[in-house]
Amino acid sequence: MLCDKIIEDREFGHLYIIVNARAVRYTFRPANDGTEKIGVRVTVPSRYDLKDVLQSVERMRPQLNAMLQKSQASKSEAKKQTHIDWDFRIESDCLHISFVKGTSQKVLFHKEAAQIDRNEQGEDIVLKPAVLQFVCPPDFDFDKGDRQAMFERAIIEGVRLHAKIQLLPRLLAYANRNGIQLNEVKINSSKGRWGSCSLRKKRTLLKTQILHNINLSLFTLLLPMHLQKLILLHELTHTFYMDHSPAFHAKLDAWLGGKEAELEKELKKYKTTIFSFVKDVKPK
Ligand SMILES: [Zn+2]
Predict the structure, then answer these.
(1) Residue-level pLDDT at 192
(2) Could you report the per-residue pLDDT of 222-275, keeping only the tens digit for each?
(3) How far is the CA of 204 from the centre of ligand 1 (A)?
(4) Centroid of ligand 1 to alpha carbon of 195 (angstroms)
(5) I need a labelling partner for 244 at 20 to 30 A (CA). Which of 8, 27, 51, 168 fits?
(6) What is the 82 CA–ligand 1 centroid distance (Å)?
(7) Cα dihedral 170→174→179→182 (10° resolution)
(8) In sequence order, what E strands does 122-261 have?
(9) What residues are paired with 126 via a beta bridge?
(10) Cα 244 to middle of ligand 1, angstroms
(11) 261 C-alpha to ligand 1 centroid (Å)
(12) Cα–ligand 1 centroid distance for 192 (angstroms)
């Protein structure tokens, strides 16, 4: 930050005086000086009287305090949204992930398989989601060393495992019921897309067969069941149409009982990152 003057402040840490030729009055914004303490950024006109600025700060102190508190709160909320600690909890239809305090000094894993039934239409009904629990020492420091990155990797591997166990058979069941033959189905950690479909030509002595490969992002498993269905049927519709033409959407929409647009809209609340699924964090 380019500023004209930095002034120590007993309450705010620092006041950063920034000259802006186009400014006609003082404006106050929260500033982060790189430490935990937040300062106040004061924009002033070219010709300013420092004494007057400081008097103004005194008059505005209660409002500035409230402004900084609000900014601090939204910052810690943002941190919570990408932080793994005791509050990190995913409770999706198919998988529950949590951290609990144990008695051992080691980090232990507690796992339970999902209980899944099929309804008359051949669709999966999750009776009990799979459980992945990290049992940590009671005084565990989540920020020590590279623990944040380590747990993120462990959570992603846990989701990948359950995606293989649950999503693959779910996709194959839809494919089989509709006479769709697939070449290969994979779970990947793709960010930014929930799934993809590609063509594969298979030559035998007698004929050339065109088959499809489908990749599903492991994050698809964390979506509610009805949105998983959207993703799975979307990719399977690509085995008929390799584009997003009106014909593609007509087929998919019919398959989803006329709910494609509604489901697509709901899907926008989620992102392909584990933090998008943390409970009590509003989906962005
Ligand atoms: Zn598509």
Answers:
(1) 85
(2) 999 999 999 999 999 999 999 999 999 999 999 999 999 999 999 999 999 999
(3) 29
(4) 8
(5) 168
(6) 29
(7) -50
(8) 124-128, 130-136, 182-188, 195-203, 208-217
(9) 116
(10) 6
(11) 14
(12) 13
* Distance from residue 235's CA to the centre of ligand 1 (Å): 6
Structural domains in the chain plus CATH codes: 5-80 (no CATH), 89-277 (3.30.2010.10)
Q: Is the pLDDT of residue 77 over 80?
A: no
Quote the CA–CA distance of 172 and 236 in Å, as a whole number. 10
How far apart are the CA of 3 and the centre of ligand 1, in A?
49
Lowest-pLDDT choice from 24-38, 131-145, 171-185, 222-236? 24-38
Label residue 120 by pLDDT band (50, 70, 90).
confident
Ligand 1 centroid, distance to 248 Cα (angstroms):
9
Cα distances (Å, whole numbers) of residue 37 to 14, 68, 72, 262: 9, 10, 9, 44
Cα-Cα-Cα-Cα dihedral sign, residues 183, 115, 108, 141: positive
DSSP string, 216-237: EEGGGGGS-HHHHHHHHHHHHH
Rounded Cα distance, 273 and 252, in Å: 26
Per the structure block, which two tokens stand in for 139?
């005084």
d(CA 247, ligand 1 centre) in Å: 12
Token readout for 166 is 């649950």
